[in-house]
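Changelog note: in this version the structure field was regenerated for every chain. One regenerated record is shown below for reference.
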Amino acid sequence: MSEISLAQFAATHPGAATVIDVRQPQEYVTGHVPGSLLVPMTELSSRLGELDRTRPVHVVCASGNRSGAMADFLADLGFEALSVAGGVTAWAGSGRPLVTGVRPSAAAS
C-alpha cells in the first residue's frame, strides 16, 4: 500500500491532490477532512469518471484500512493514489478541523 503521512498530507492540503473520503455517508456527515469529496468505497468503481487522472488522489477513511485498499485499487488503474495514514481519526486527533454535513466546503465545526 502506498501511503502519505499525516504531516505530509496536512502540509500539502488543500490543493495538491483530489481528496476522496471512502467512508459511508453517515460517517462523512459526522466529520470529514475539509475539501474531501464523499465517494463511498462501494461506489468508487462506478464513479471513476469523476476523478481527474492528471491529479494525484489522496484517499481517506476512518483509520487507513479502507483507504489503503482503495488507493491500491486506483493505483492498479493508473491513478497516482495514496492512502492518508491514520485517516480522519488521526487528522482530528492531531487537532486539525473537521467539517460536518454533506458538502465538502461546509464551515468547519
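Spot check on this record: The chain has one domain: 3-93. The two ends are 31 Å apart (CA to CA).
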